[in-house]
Every structure is written in C-alpha cells, then in structure tokens.
UniProtKB/TrEMBL annotation:
<dbReference type="Pfam" id="PF00106">
    <property type="entry name" value="adh_short"/>
</dbReference>
<comment type="similarity">
    <text>Belongs to the short-chain dehydrogenases/reductases (SDR) family.</text>
</comment>
<protein>
    <recommendedName>
        <fullName>Dehydrogenase/reductase 9</fullName>
    </recommendedName>
</protein>
<dbReference type="InterPro" id="IPR036291">
    <property type="entry name" value="NAD(P)-bd_dom_sf"/>
</dbReference>
<dbReference type="InterPro" id="IPR002347">
    <property type="entry name" value="SDR_fam"/>
</dbReference>
<dbReference type="GO" id="GO:0008202">
    <property type="term" value="P:steroid metabolic process"/>
</dbReference>
<dbReference type="GO" id="GO:0016491">
    <property type="term" value="F:oxidoreductase activity"/>
</dbReference>
Length: 205
C-alpha cells in the first residue's frame, strides 16, 4: 500500500514502492506468463481496487491502481484474438493486512516527525490524532470483514463460462466508491472534502 498521507508530506520514494509492486510488478508477471496463457487460451484476472477508480487518499497506492486500470482495455482487446479473457476486480475496503490501521498510523507518524516545522505548523500539532480518529470511524463504517466477497469474484472470473470484464466486491464499492467515481468532479470533491480533517493554519510558515 505504501504510506498514505497528504501529498506535501511525501517524497518520491514513498510513491515509488507501491507503484513498483502494484503496477510494474503486475505488468512484469503478466508479460512473463503471456506466452503460456496464450497457448492455454487461459484467463487474466487483475486485482485493481476502487482506489483505481477514485483517488480517496494521497500516496502511491491510488496512482498504482489507476495504472492497472489504464492497461486493462488494451490487453483485453489484444488478447481477444487468442481466446484469452481478461477480467479486472475492484474490491472496496476489506479488513486485510493491507488495511492494518496500526501500521498505517505508525507510518504516518514517522513521516510527520520528519516534516519541516513550517509544514507541521500549517497542519497543527493535533492534526495527526484528529485525522486518525476520523479515519478510524470511517473504517468502522465502511470496512468489509467478509473476504469471501472478493474471493467469489476471483472464482467467477476464473471458472465461469462467461467471465465479466469487471467485478466490484463489497457494499461500499457498489453503493459509494464506484457510483461516486462516475459522478462529476465537483460532486466528488464536495463529498470527499467534507470528510477531510481541517488544517490549523494553511497560511502559517
Ligand atoms: C521482471 O521480472 C524479471 C524476472 O522474472 C526480473 O529479472 C526483472 O528484473 C523484472 N523487471 C522489472 C522491471 O521489475
Ligand atoms: C492486467 O494487467 C496487465 C499488465 O499490466 C494489463 O496489460 C492488463 O490490461 C490488465 N488487465 C486488467 C483487466 O486490468
Ligand atoms: C481505465 C480503463 O480503461 N478502464 C476500463 C477497464 O475495463 C473496464 C471493463 O471492460 C472498462 O469499463 C473500463 O473503462
């Protein structure tokens, strides 16, 4: 996942790690297996994310998943002639190692401690606690605990006669993230900004 924090807290290396794993790694594995998949008239199932449709938080994770989405149409069309079917799965928030709150909060605190004083002044000393409390509440509302929802999509994509090109897993993805991702930018910003933690003094420093 990489650290998720406001963009002005991050360095290029914070972005590079999730992009290397989620996008470059996925492309590399696909390229290496493509000859065998073509021979077998097999299937490709990529795990993207609702974070590949709507960038809800800062950091490299959403750009990496937008990258995965960006490849999907061309590969599907390129592989059609070979009888290879391509599917993309977009899970919402699931309770897995990826969404380990303790780790996410720790990573953010480490970054916070290394920030220049001017930036800390802009956000305010209490920012990180307020923001963590808010995110904890949202996580409790939205997080799916039934991982089989995502696994069932994978199973269908791999074993059904007519796999879909796109699967959405989790109620939050179905009723919130994916519909919101199809709405005009002004509405997306209105809804997402309402849930942002306020800065103490953006003009400080
Ligand atoms: C792609 O995978 C191969 C081995 O499977 C590895 O040697 C190579 O470094 C990888 N390339 C990138 C850009 O990750
Ligand atoms: C799966 O990933 C490969 C490599 O990035 C990409 O070419 C392909 O389009 C992706 N498919 C989907 C459905 O996202
Ligand atoms: C970004 C992108 O190209 N997304 C496409 C991925 O594939 C689905 C399913 O076919 C399309 O609906 C998206 O437009």
């Amino acid at each position: 996942m990489g650290p998720s924090a406001p963009t002005d807290w991050l360095t290029i290396e914070h972005f590079r790690a999730p992009i290397e794993v989620n996008l470059i790694g996925l492309i590399n594995v696909t390229l290496h297996l493509l000859p065998l998949v073509k021979m077998a008239r097999g299937r490709l199932v990529n795990i993207s994310s609702t974070g590949g449709r709507l960038a809800v938080w800062g950091g490299g994770y959403c750009p990496s998943k937008f990258g995965v989405e960006g490849f999907n149409d061309s590969l599907r069309r390129d592989m059609k002639a070979f009888g290879v079917k391509v599917s993309c799965i977009e899970p919402g928030l699931f309770k897995t190692g990826l969404s380990n709150r303790k780790k996410i909060i720790q990573e953010r605190e480490t970054i916070w401690k290394q920030l220049p004083p001017a930036i800390r002044k802009q956000y305010g000393e209490g920012y990180i606690q307020k923001d963590a409390a808010k995110k904890e509440k949202l996580t409790q509302i939205f997080q799916n605990t039934d991982l089989s929802l995502a696994v069932k999509c994978m199973e269908h994509a791999l074993t059904s006669i007519h796999p879909h090109s796109r699967y959405t897993a989790g109620w939050d993805a179905k009723v919130l993230w994916i519909p919101l991702s199809n709405m005009p930018t002004a509405i997306q910003d209105f809804i997402l900004l309402r849930n942002k933690t306020e800065l103490a003094d953006p003009t400080a420093g």
